[in-house]
Amino acid sequence: MAKSKNNAKKVSYISVPSQIINSLSSSSLHSLLLSPKKSSRNRFFGLNSYRSPVFWFLTLFLFCFLGMLKLSYNLDPLVPFSPYPCVTSQPQLQYSLFKGHTRSQLGFVSNGEKNEKKDQEVGSVDARELKSEVGFGSNELKDESLKGVVDFQGGNSDGVEEETEFWKQPDGLGYKPCVKFSGEYRSLSELIVKDRRKYLLVVVSGGLNQQRNQIVDAVVIARILGAALVVPILQVNVIWGDESEFSDIFDLEHFKRVLANDVRIVSSLPSTHLITRPVVERRTPLHVSPQWIRSRYLKRLNREGVLLLRGLDSRLSKDLPSDLQNLRCKVAFSALRFAPPVLELGNKLAERMRNKGPYLALHLRMELDVWVRTGCNHGLSHEYDEIINKERKQRPELLTARSNMTYRERKLAGLCPLNAMEVARLLKALGAPKSASIYWAGGQPLGGKEALLSLTREFPNFYNKEDLALPSELKPFANRASLMAAIDYIVSENSDVFMPSHGGNMGHAIQGHRAYAGHKKYITPNKRHMLPYFLNSSLPTAEFNRIIKELHRDSLGQPELRTSKAGRDVTKYPVPECMCTDSHTRASL
Length: 589
Fold this sequence. Notes:
Layout (H helix, E strand, L loop, with lengths): L1 H7 L9 H6 L2 H8 L19 H21 L16 H9 L4 H4 L4 H4 L2 H18 L12 H7 L3 H11 L8 E2 L5 H12 L4 E6 L3 H18 L2 E3 L2 E2 L11 H4 L2 H7 L6 E2 L12 E3 L8 H15 L1 E5 L11 H14 L4 H15 L4 E5 L4 H7 L7 H13 L12 H6 L7 H10 L7 E5 L11 H6 L3 E2 L1 H4 L2 H4 L6 H13 L3 E4 L4 H12 L4 E2 L4 H8 L6 H11 L27 E2 L2 H6 L1
Parallel strand pairs: 2-3, 2-4, 2-7, 3-5, 6-7, 8-9, 8-11, 9-10, 11-12
Antiparallel strand pairs: 1-13
Helix pairs in contact: 8-9, 12-16, 14-16, 17-25, 18-19, 27-28
GO cellular component, one term: membrane
Main location: membrane
Family: Belongs to the glycosyltransferase GT106 family.
């Protein structure tokens, strides 16, 4: 009996898995623990039971147990218990979740998950994969659960670096403008500017930048002949009907003043020469030398006193003596300054772009006449391609060259302008950020805004002069294509990065200007080599971008020697004649 009595005093316990306990609410546990007992045991809860130490022990245990459950489930809203104890900043967590990363992707491991070794390993691997894929450069952390948050806060480090790289300027190798003339040149200048017998008249044609090139050559030819230059006459443009005169576009007084020691500039012929019948030359050969000019014109000019030249485009050789090359640079980069009203508005629009941050200027060649002249189609639709082909058949003389080539052959040879989709892909591959501010210069593209959709979808911050200027500011320049082009030129020249969609006079002029200003970034699309990759749809984006960057590594406006290739214009490549540095740097080119 004693043994039985001792056994009755023993307490038995049931082992219950923690998962079951965790799944029950506190009220359920409470009712379970305090469930009614059989009548034979009712005496245990009688009045005498309150005096028993066992009762008070169980009561204390129950309250402690309920308290622990309360903490585990965060039942009390006043207790600031985070399910992610390693995260110290709630805004950081919200930012991470806002970006669309799940807890496992960010490397978070909850208390329950810590009991499962496999889940913990997966969470760690996800965090490492996220860091590897996005390229975050955060320091390693001892606590694996923090990696996701800290790595994400390290944010777009690669993206930021890529954006910074896009705006980075090329190494100018220390080259600076150094227009200098020999002693012989300076001594001849005194005689030339005093001469009152010989006068050169020139008629320049084409668009603004064609006219600029011809004016530069006119000054040099006047110097070769020792003649005074009458302010160039701008031929009315047959395409745009622009009747602007020299002084409407350029600062005439500045032009005269800068060149005062090189060539005498006069506004008109003196009365003594008005009745003189000038020597007229309409068909000057291409790329003539100073010797040819003197032998051809000097004797007749001395006799008649006036020489009239037309169509000077590319007539003067690009390979001239050093003094004449320096004169070319002096005219192009110093003497030909835009007229004050044009310069004022152009600088104002450039400043408005600058207020948006660094900006890219694009010269888009997508007008109807450009497609016709190049023999190319822009591929917007079959309807627009038919318009181009019809115009080309009606005016075959507009086709510039290589008429025996098909459109595809021209395209693969790099002879066609880039369309909007190709410009967008190129810029993205080169690392241009989507938020980049872009100023686009050029006439209205064939197809209007529809032709630009591929570009504006990728780069929504897209502006031209009409977007930036007030209507009243542009009104004085309305229907004056050359003045509008001059405004585009000023905004483009002041940009952080410039890229033309096709070669042309404006692109060449700005390339030289940006080089002379310290080799500001200028992207030259390597069309011939890059277009085959554009046509390869199976090429992964990362590989495509790598190839495009490699193709343009040396086409970002770095110094290039004009003399490295025959026939280069010094106003496009001012090194070495018009820009200089120490001999060691020059030799490194």
